[in-house]
Write a structure and sequence with these properties.
Shape: globular
Strand content: 15-25%
CATH superfamily: Vaccinia Virus protein VP39
Number of strands: 8
CATH architecture: 3-Layer(aba) Sandwich
Radius of gyration: 18 Å
Structural class: alpha/beta
Helix content: 40-55%
CATH class: Alpha Beta
CATH topology: Rossmann fold
Number of helices: 12
Oligomer: single chain
């Protein structure tokens, strides 16, 4: 908790999602949220790990009934500071590992767009996912986001020139898997590990999406693009983000599940 509080207390998370690179992730995630909410207003949405409310506040202003759960107090303060009182939203401080305040089958959609970045054991990941599934209605949608291993190896270790430092810290296994722990903030995962988690849940996978695709590999290029070219990049990305041969190289993925 202290590592996360320190990290998010000094970070402009909204600014990250508003950058050209961050917008790819945000717009892709919203594209699929909207697709699965196609019934219109009145649907109940739970966001676990709501952060500063980039998704929760937007969805509440679209007319949905939103419940936001966030662990970090600083993020909750930022989220609440965005509200004008017109939104149908409840905000709670809480942990993804324990959603006992909510009854079984309470929500049409449950978003877990951050907690799995910071859960370092398979047991904790499964506990959070089981809780998300439990509070979702049968036939409802669970969307879970992950940080991917291979993108970090390529970008941080090789492109960033940190390869020798990482090996010196013994943070990379012989099969090139980053060894995550709380002080490193992020837990990194592979597509086959996500599939192993899904196999232990009472769900059916709909899609596994590359939410930012190649965007992080070309940050400078995207920031320098004119608007028309950037729109072409988004079109390319939306056309390819479901390609399973590309998903594992994305920095972030979105696992879309239906509760059986």
């Amino acid at each position: 908790m202290d590592f996360l509080s320190e990290y998010y207390g000094s970070r402009d998370e909204d600014g990250r999602l508003l950058s050209r690179v961050g917008r790819v992730e945000y717009l892709t995630t919203m594209k699929y949220i909207k697709e699965y909410l196609e019934g219109g207003c009145g649907k109940r949405i739970l966001e676990v790990g709501a952060g500063t409310g980039r998704y929760s506040v937007t969805l509440a202003r679209m007319g949905y009934c939103v419940t936001a759960v966030e662990l970090v107090e600083h993020n909750i303060d930022v989220l609440k500071g965005k509200l004008d009182g017109s939104e149908d939203i409840e905000v709670f401080q809480g942990n993804a590992l324990d959603l006992s305040r909510f009854e079984d089958g309470s929500f049409d959609m449950t978003l877990v767009l951050g907690p799995l970045y910071h859960l370092y054991t398979k047991a904790d990941k499964l506990r959070a996912l089981h809780e998300a599934v439990r509070v979702t209605k049968p036939g409802g949608v669970i969307m879970a986001a992950y940080c991917m291993n291979e993108a970090t190896i390529v970008q941080y270790c090789f492109m960033g020139g940190n390869l020798s430092d990482e090996f010196a810290k013994e943070m990379i296994s012989p099969d090139w898997h980053c060894k995550s722990e709380p002080k490193e903030i992020f837990e990194l995962i592979r597509t086959e590990e996500i599939a192993e988690l899904d196999a232990e849940l009472d769900v059916t996978r709909e899609k596994l999406i590359a939410t930012d695709g190649a965007a992080h590999y070309h940050k400078a290029m995207l920031e320098e693009m004119d608007d028309a070219t950037y729109q072409k990049w988004l079109d390319f990305h939306f056309t390819t983000c479901e390609r399973q041969d590309l998903v594992g190289a994305s920095n972030h993925t979105l696992d879309i599940l239906i509760k059986n």
